[in-house]
Design goal:
The chain is of the alpha+beta class. It has three domains: about 1-85, Rossmann fold (3-Layer(aba) Sandwich), CATH 3.40.50; about 115-180, ATP-grasp fold, A domain (Dna Ligase, domain 1); about 185-310, D-amino Acid Aminotransferase, Chain A, domain 1, CATH 3.30.470.20. Helix content is about 30%, strand content about 25%. Strands 9, 10, 11, 12, 13, 14, 15, 16 and 17 form a nine-stranded antiparallel β-sheet that branches. Strand 9 and strand 10 form a beta hairpin. Helix 1 (about 10-20) crosses helix 10 (about 295-300), helix 2 crosses helix 3 and helix 6 (about 120-130) packs across helix 7. The protein is globular and about 55 Å long. The structure holds adenosine monophosphate (AMP). Adenosine monophosphate binds near residues 146, 180 and 186. Adenosine monophosphate (AMP) binds next to strand 14.
Length: about 350
């Protein structure tokens, strides 16, 4: 069994490690010869437009998948024309554009953040008037880990926000203005869908971000409004069925303290974004679930039976950002499982994570 993976970062690396356990060979593809998956598995190096390199990726593959959502659609589609490719290209395309993504979420009963398309500074003014302040201006495409977004707190922030993200001197392209959600918690739901249509969900996860980067995840426990959690689960199941989705999908949600201002179908949970891939908020599953998200993603795309998503012990996951602290001190913590990604240290870069089990 050979699985081709577009992308060779830590998610590809963890897919490869999971593949080893179940006898599946993972072959990653990345433009960067130093991509960290290459330390543990075969890595094809090439640009996404390089068909010869893509040909080396898919050669002998049973299935192709991807490990980050900004894989150029043309590259994924080129693979899909030649080899079975999951999840569906439509999911990848939607995840690459915040407006399309919100429309897809809404179509399946997952109420998105109130938002408006912004393509000029006057439009930004209109959107600020309509949605109120504070608000968050984001590029529709290409943003991740809090990049490509600016919080507007007062009207005077409009020109600077536009200059940073919208003007030709800024990042350019389409923008979206979102109302600022005064959430009480950020929650993510991870689901896996098999080729036979079976869907399994992991327990909800509570996430804490700093500067847009995930720093800590813990079990979310009870939702403020269990009915809205049920609706979110049903929405994800519907979305996956609608797209013929195969593999792991993550949906990030804002939990509001009350139901005010939230449209029907959302309840106390408002959908922020989705990731058509394994997700950082699911890393705990390696150490604290019966079958982890990486193995389940591989099982799904290979058409194998899905594993149990049951949580088997209490846990807390912390990202290691920028650098890995002294390993001896880290490992002294009772119940700590260390996962290093083998990446060079750099401010703001995810270089590893720890899961403390039995907490
Ligand atoms: P994103 O890249 O859209 O996931 O945004 C990164 C983080 O910024 C989120 O996890 C939130 O903590 C915060 N954030 C993004 N959009 C909003 C919003 N509309 N209201 C409040 N916080 C937000």
């Amino acid at each position: 069994m050979i699985v081709g993976v577009l992308g060779g970062g830590q998610l590809g690396r963890m897919l490869a490690l999971a593949g080893r356990r179940i006898g599946a060979q993972v072959r990653c593809f990345d433009p960067d010869a130093q991509a960290c998956a290459g330390q543990v598995t075969e890595l094809v190096v090439g640009n996404y437009s390089d068909k010869a390199a893509l040909g080396r990726l898919i050669d002998g593959c049973d299935v192709v998948t991807y490990e980050f959502e900004n894989v150029p659609i043309e590259a994924a589609a080129w693979c899909a024309e030649r080899v079975e490719t999951h999840p569906a290209i439509a999911a990848l395309a939607a995840a690459q554009d915040r407006i399309e993504e919100k429309a897809l979420l809404r179509a399946h009963g997952l109420e998105p953040v109130p938002h408006m398309l912004v393509e000029s500074e006057p439009q930004l003014r209109e959107a600020v008037e309509a949605l109120g302040l504070p608000a968050v201006l984001k590029t529709c495409r290409g943003g991740y880990d809090g990049k490509g977004q600016v919080v507007l707190r007062e009207a005077a922030d409009i020109p600077t926000a536009w200059a940073e993200l919208g003007s030709p001197a800024g990042e350019g392209g389409r923008l979206v203005l979102e109302g600022f959600i005064a959430f009480s918690r950020e929650i993510s739901l991870l689901a896996v869908r098999g080729k036979d249509g079976q869907v399994r969900l992991y327990d909800p996860v509570r996430n804490e971000h700093e500067g847009g980067i995930l720093v800590r995840s813990r079990p979310a426990g009870e939702a403020v409004d269990p009915a809205s959690l049920d609706r979110a689960r049903a929405g994800i199941t519907s979305l996956m069925a609608g797209l013929g989705y195969v593999g792991v999908l993550a949906v990030e949600l804002f939990e509001t303290a009350d139901r005010r201002g939230v449209g029907e179908g959302g309840g106390g949970l408002i959908a922020n974004e989705m990731a058509p891939r394994v997700h950082n908020s699911g890393h705990w599953t390696i150490d604290a679930a019966a079958c982890d998200q990486f193995e389940n993603h591989l099982r799904a795309v290979l058409g194998l039976p899905l594993g149990s998503t049951r949580t088997i012990c209490n846990w807390e996951m912390r990202n290691l950002i920028g650098s890995v602290p002294a390993v001896g001190a880290l490992l002294a913590e009772e119940g700590l499982r260390l996962h290093c990604y083998g990446k060079a240290e750099k401010a703001g870069r995810k270089v590893g994570h720890v899961t403390v089990v039995g907490v």
